Amino acid sequence: MAVLPAPTYGEKLLHRLLRDLPRKQFFFHHEPQLISPDGRSRKPDFVIVSALHGVVVLEVKDWVKLTGGDQRSIHTRRSDGQAVSYDNPVRTAEGYAYDLKRRFEARAELWEQYKGRTRLAFPWQVMVALPRISRAVIQQFEKKGIWPRGVVIGKESLTGAAQLQQAIHALPWTFPLERPLSLDMLDIIREVLNPSLTVENDEGLPIGTLTAAQYGLITEPLHSTLPRQMAMFGDDEDSEETHGLAENAALRLVRGVAGSGKTLVLVRRTRHLAELYPEARLLVLTFNIELARDLRARIGLPEEQARVAHFHQLCRFILGRDWRDPNRARDWLRDHARDALQAQGLTADFVAGEFAWRKELGLIDPAAYLEADRRGRGQRLDRGRRQFIDALFGQYRAHQAAMETQGGGWDWDDVALRTLDVLTTRRHPLRATYDGVLIDEAQDFAPSWIGVARALLKPEGSLFICDDPAQSIFCSYTWPQKGLHIVGRSRVLRVPFRSTREISQAAHSLIEADEGLRATEDLAQPDFASYELGSGPLPVLMACRDREAETAFVDGQIERLLREGLPAGQIAILCHGRWHLDRWAAWNGRGVFVQNIERIKGLEFRAVFLPHLQEVFPRPDDAEAVTQGRRKLFTAMTRARYRLMLSYQGALPKPLEPLLEWMWCESTS
């Protein structure tokens, strides 16, 4: 591997000053690679982008004494007395700037119309920094016409970030900006300077640019390597974030609204870490099989570099011979307590979830459970129904104990606890082996799941977590309950890039209308204003007179999309209940993705259908049950990138009335 030349005193100084400029107004790139028309690769020292002014190409020279020159070359004398001549750095910077201008002009998004002609929407300028030369000397060269006035700055302008900012402001800009450059335009400029920021779709076509926030999360250093590999300029910006998980491990929580690029960040970060730290061991975990398969394809690395697994797949590997095919508490409840559950107005799914919640929080003792705070569990329980559930819980645990003697007895909710026991008490070979563990859709990870991830992480390793509390379908645990201290270690992505503005606003109307969802811990608020989000047709809310009419509506719309050329794999029918999947099995056979909502986390489709909405809210007067139903629909709606069609039979459920303002409402009758 080639050894990069060490940065000079001047480069270090400029890097430090540039880093201290106001981040909302400036960003910079060190030595971007520019390809000139003749195919040569050229690297200016810095390119500075000012949202208030334009683009600056900056050259830095550590000359200690100037003896003369002209517009082509500058004569200097080194500290050892040797005379050396160099190309005029202003001319060098101008050459870089012309190459860069051609690259900007290749992007139509950066054009504007001005007085009947097309031009770049921002000006560009060159600058030369001479940190060892005084302003008085520089002025002598300006008077002789060797340098334009205000373009070359000396040591007086480099005493602090404020002085450098003033020098940038004082450059002879060709025209002033009428308004600051938009975030969309700034991101395109960043992409021109660094093409690796390009975001591509499944066909490899460019569809956008990584934002500054996303790129910053992707390129954070892997904590376990920091003692061995320091940044080129010795930055210590992340030192505050590298303590507090377990021993010396680092934690980063990426919290974002649906479609804000959390999974994109995780995929890019995994690839970035594998390239930057080839000896590091990386593990990517997620909730379900479909998302693990999608992540594995998108990351595209061999398993020895980055292992990608859904959680229970990893547990099965760790347990090995100790693995036992789990039972389902839900099935036991249906077999042994169906009538009693119906009498109490409870479902086997709900009570099985209550059993799992109790196990995760250690609420085994009846008194502890009866007094526990259940807010956020999705359904209110009076004391009588709690006592009923507690009695069933005791019976189920007795059943598990009996099955244990026969080589069974596990429930799915016991798998993580058993895995954690193997890792911590039996010193499993995978314990503390990963430099980085990255978790997607972590809002559905229970405390014991997080415990497994931590047990797999090296003491000084990095835990990188992506979540969105608004999409939490399976779990209701706070971060303290999961054993993680996230204060000061979280970053929020607020712009819903995935879906059109129309789809995002419709989906978020369910959040805004629901007191329980609005009160969700650390819920990220969407930002619809700072970026130009894509636009598309209004989502459709179709009222159907009966089952046959709804089927005809969905079938007809899918047939039309297929005739228009949309691939079947980019269409999804998402059902809130597994019992509906058979109804749409024929479409599954034709390549359309048909699945229940619980299994679509992290996935996205060009068009999404959500039928049978009349059954989503069986208890419309139960506020927590309504919250849970809206949460599921929000998750499903935000899987759609461009087309979203909701349908129901009969009357519109009252909890969906907020959608009426944001959707195209029709009827089949």
Structural account:
The chain has 669 residues and is an alpha/beta fold. The protein has four domains: 9-196; 210-322 and 414-493, P-loop containing nucleotide triphosphate hydrolases (Rossmann fold); 329-409; 501-667, P-loop containing nucleotide triphosphate hydrolases (Rossmann fold, 3-Layer(aba) Sandwich). It has 21 helices and 26 strands. The strands form seven sheets. The chain has a six-stranded parallel beta sheet with strand order 17-16-18-19-15-20. Strands 23-22-24-25-21-26 form a six-stranded parallel beta sheet, with helices on both faces. Helix 6 crosses helix 7 (262-276) and helix 9 (311-319) packs across helix 15.
Low-confidence stretches: 225-248
The CATH homologous superfamily of the largest domain is termed P-loop containing nucleotide triphosphate hydrolases
- Tertiary shape: elongated
Distance between the termini: 70 Å
Which CATH class of the largest domain applies here? Answer: Alpha Beta
Strand content: 15-25%
Q: How many separate structural domains?
A: 4
Radius of gyration: 30 Å
Could you say what the CATH topology of the largest domain is called?
Answer: Rossmann fold
* Contiguous helical run count: 21
By secondary-structure content and strand pairing, the structural class works out as alpha/beta
> What summary fits the major beta sheet?
6 strands, parallel
Helix amount, in percent?
Answer: 25-40%
Order of the strands making up the biggest sheet: 17-16-18-19-15-20
Label the CATH architecture of the largest domain. Answer: 3-Layer(aba) Sandwich
Question: Could you give the count of β-strands?
Answer: 26
Rounded mean pLDDT score: 89
